[in-house]
Amino acid sequence: MTDATRSPLRQSAVHESAHAHVTGAARYVDDLPEPGGMLHGLPVGSPVARGRVVARRAERALALPGVRAVLFAADVPGHNRIGPIVHDEPLLAEDEVFAVGQTVALVIGDSVAACRAGAQALELEFEELPAILTVAEALAAGSFLCPLHEMRRGDVAAALARAAVVIEGEVSTGGQDHFYLETQASLAIPGEDDTIHLESSTQHPTEVQIACSEVLGCPRNHIVVAVPRMGGAFGGKESQASQFAALAALAARHTGRPVKVWLSRDLDMTMTGKRHPFWSRYRAGLDARGRLLGLEVELVADGGWSVDLSPAILDRGMFHIDNGYFVPNLHFVGKAVRTNKASNTAFRGFGGPQGMAVMEEVLSRAAERLGLDPAEIRRRNYYGDCPDEHGPENMVHVPVPDDEQTSAGASVISLVRARCLTPYYQEVPHCRLPRIHAELLQRCDWDARRAEIAEFNARSPWQKRGLGFMPVKFGISFTNTMLNQAGALVLIYADGSVQLNHGGTEMGQGLHTKMLAVCAHELGVTTAQIRCMATATDKVPNTSATAASSGSDLNGMAVQRACAEIRERVRPLAAELLGGVAPEAVQFVAGAAVAPDGRKLPWSELAKTAWMRRLSLSAAGYYATPNIAYDRSAGRGKPFHYFAYGAAAIEVEVSGLTGEHRILRADLLHDVGSSLLPTIDLGQVEGGFIQGVGWVTGEELVWDAKGRLLTHGPSTYKIPAVGDCPTVFNVALLEHAEQDGTIHGSKAVGEPPLMLGLGVVSALRQAIAAFGPGEVALQIPCTPEAILRAVVRQREGAAVAPAADAAE
Ligand code: MTE
Ligand code: HPA
Ligand code: MOS
Hints:
By secondary structure, the protein is of the alpha+beta class. It has an eight-stranded mixed sheet with strand order 3-7-1-14-11-12-13-22, with helices on both faces. The longest helix has 27 residues, at about 550-575. The protein is globular. The structure holds ligand MTE, hypoxanthine (HPA) and dioxothiomolybdenum(VI) ion.
């Protein structure tokens, strides 16, 4: 890297657990040594999508060897209802069930096999009731999970009337299973005085603590939740680890013995929620040069049977309809519907990808109508001024009162004129997309390759190539402002060794590695002198989920503050021990306090002397993101601390005979600010992108007419494999990209690159368009079947079959 503005952290570029991951020494919940007398708990789900529970009898199950107990709703001593926003989910079903796989009973036994036998022997009877299985049915029935969310500006009708091109249509995006390698798992160990210690695979230890305390009817201080690490989470363990942890806690309380609840892959896929499928309807007007004038969108999220995080996911979807483009006149309406499916939940991007998919479809279709390059139409619409595009005739017409102001106090009309106001009235101060765009097009040799591809397609009747483009702008902060806070606790022992605790959880994303680097930098020690401890609610209380990509932003600041406090406490002592130098002149680097003349005092000696002099060697740090707020009922505010940006140029080759495709090349340029640790960030960009590619291509969830998921294992649900990765894969981080007001100028990276995967749709459309004239109709996910249908339609639309075809 040659970035002159890069962050000062350069100590460790290797994932803190890499050695343990590759040797198998890394412990996940199910690897922990099993405590004596431990039992297993197996949740048993409803077989029907909706029904009344008519009978629940456990006698036959209880008679089996190794079955210790069977728990139903009536066995819950506290509240039976859990849920992250609204407590609307019975931990164990009450009178009615609302989805296949909704937990009805918990079988507790000596082994998983005994529990499975017990589950088979349970006598559960249901009277089936009519179920709502699609978004269309839910809309027709008025089955909503939360109030509408609306955003408005200007006059869309007038804008559409003025438009050179009007495009109307519908977009659906499918669900996605998290397919974390480690399925849901929790181990509950009962302690003295009705306390419980849990080891849980959760992104949100505090929420697990809350759920367990409410289910058991005890104060939160009776519950300790620890997270060793997760074998992947991707949002699937933000809210949905809680029910399995609470079941383990309930079983531990009931039996007085440790209980582990672990789900097999099939059970996990059946019981847990997925990415929300969205259905949307839009009407867009653009001028003759392809610039958006007005956009109307109805965005509908399929939330499944309970509220879970659906309102927040819908909100993030609404916040990302614009993606990186200025929309002068707009009206967006968001709805979350209740259906009788597993309750859908957080998944990397959290509604953002689904919102963006609508805009990208609009721009793709407009480009096809206007005969524009897919990158160029996007460039013309970016936030911010592009002077070459702004003659006076292009001045936006938006009827806004002159004195209207944003919540940040800026003039609305001037921000509209500068094309830098989002649909929710947050300013986009320095949109980095024009810069990223120019740099990426150059890096990937865009123009030359477009020409080569056109030539290839002219020669090749059945294999067609396409070059697609996808920019991303993603808002960073929890959209629920209150969640943007974090804490840390740093302990220094008298030998100088350090224990670092922070509120974030490690799911493979490298958060602990980054926090170690922040801590090492701040104390001037080496990462080898620090241990990052398992996340635990008895070290840092009241944490938010590690989610919204904000783990390092929030916890990094808290770690920095805790470390700085200790460092400043020992600074005068260091100055004294270095022979009375000026305290402010002492530097803390590489495991020593260093005097201006270069003399060194080892950190271990400083710590020991600080202890002997009775200086406190521990400190807590706390951080809350400043200056953010959003008024949902008004559809206005500043929900995000800043935006992360990126872009992808992707080349695919499609077979017109089978509908299969390969990604020949992908060039990604992503903005992570001044990277805290480039190797970790590059891994996140690559992994996020591939996960996004999976969502829009091979990953397809199929349910039968009774609402039963048919794709509940790797044999039927296809996540991307190594062979699906681009043959040429160039990933780069934007340089000279420092961000104000963040930890060492860095930006969040966890989710934004996922949306670069949508670039594959753009590329596929280009390839499909080469089969015949006219606009492409391509469904997401772009499975081989969907691609083949689109190709056939394109070929049938062709006025005359290309000569080459006849020769075949
Ligand atoms: N990377 C790995 N390897 N495993 C994961 O489960 N989750 C993603 C992302 N990257 C995930 C991941 C999601 S959904 C989020 S919100 C962020 O990591 C959370 O971590 P961060 O805030 O520390 O980036
Ligand atoms: N992103 C991710 N997770 C969340 C959010 C969000 O904005 N809000 C609540 N949980
Ligand atoms: Mo990530 S979907 O915010 O856990």
